[in-house]
Amino acid sequence: MTSTIESPQQEDLVVLLDSVPHPAADAAEPFIVASDRRVILAYPIAEADFERFGPFDPDDDPFCAVLFPDTVFHRLGPPGDGDLDIHPLAGQGLSGYSAHEVENSSLAAEIAAVGSAGVAQRHFVITFQDSTFECVASDYTVVGVFGAGEIAMREAFSLVR
């Protein structure tokens, strides 16, 4: 009789989030503004999303800001687009320059197992040129798409207070 040991990643299901703008390729780096339990991620959006989230002036450099409330884990770092295949979720459909939710997340389950009971936690992953953002939070909200990074930064700082 042969037994099979399943990897925790086999349960993870990566789903694209169409309501979140795609990150721009070859653009400014994303930035995070965070408090104890609230994270706002801001980044330049892909030109393909300008019409869907615009209108914008020709000299605008559109950024979006995404709020993750009740965050219990977040990180921004490698891998980037060039080596995304080393990410543990690469085989489950993680793609470059995209926003994802990981359903049945092994990471969220692991965090819930060591944390206190509370708000249901969801796992989000957004991929960029040089980095990947991941967080476990109760939800996400695109709080705005702005004509410039400076405006997105001001909005992000105002939301963490």
Q: How would you concisely characterize the structure shown here?
A:
Helix content is 15%, strand content 31%. The chain has 3 helices and 9 strands.
**pLDDT under 50 segments (min length 5)?**
1-9
Distance from first to last alpha carbon: 58 Å
Number of domains: 1
Average residue pLDDT: 88
Largest sheet: 5 strands, antiparallel
Helix percentage range: 10-25%
Summarize the structure in words.
The chain is of the alpha+beta class. It has one domain (8-159). The protein has 3 helices and 9 strands, in the order E-E-E-H-E-E-E-H-E-E-E-H. The strands form 2 sheets. A 5-stranded antiparallel sheet has the order 1-6-7-8-5, with helices on one face. Strand 7 (122-127) and strand 8 (132-137) form a beta hairpin. It is globular and about 50 Å long. Mean pLDDT is 88; it is low at 1-9.
